[in-house]
Amino acid sequence: MLPPGSGPGIAPSSSAGHVHVPLVSTPGLGPAQIPGAALTQDQDRSMAEADMELIRTKRALTTMAAAAALGGNGSGGGGGKNKYRKRSRATPPGKCHSCNIRETPEWRRGPDGARTLCNACGLHYAKLVRKREKALANGESPSIQRIDMEMLRASARAAD
User: For 12-148, where are the alpha helices, taking DSSP H only?
Assistant: First the structure.
């Protein structure tokens, strides 16, 4: 229900008791017939529907592109974007460069690069590297000048 004194053709007023002024209108002409008037309600609605369809299309395309970039299923449980991405891993070398073992819980870095040593050989190599760095930091001449595969194999056999 409208308050008294506020009907069609009446401008809004303040509560201070000001005089109500009717809005200017052209008798007998609707909004579509007034020169320079805004679009009709039907035209306005159809433009809004077209805009919404464009928004829906763009949203669907970006969602499909994001799903394709994540590998199809989104791997986020709920199908949304996943905050954490899996790092691509190089394939394991097939066998350890030091002991030639084929299966290990973890591939480790060695003198030949990343993922070239089995877990045991990689830990042994890291221990030798730390020992060498500690000797260099103390100003001593390290007993191990260079750690290569031959030296690592010999050291591993000596440790057994």
Answer: 41-69, 119-137
Spatial separation of the C-alpha atoms in residues 120 and 99, rounded to whole Å: 9
What is the maximal distance between C-alpha atoms in the chain? Answer: 108
111, 149 contact by CB (below 8 A): yes
Please compute the mean of the pLDDT values over residues 30-55 and round it to a whole number: 72
Sequence-ordered list of residues with C-beta below 8 angstroms from that of 114, at least 6 positions apart, any chain: 90
Say which DSSP state 95 is in: S
Q: Is the dihedral of CA 50, 52, 55, 57 positive or negative?
A: negative
In single-letter form, the type of residue at position 98 comes to S
- In eight-state DSSP terms, residue 34 is S
Regarding pTM above 0.85, the answer is no
Identify the top-confidence range among 5-9, 31-35, 120-124.
120-124
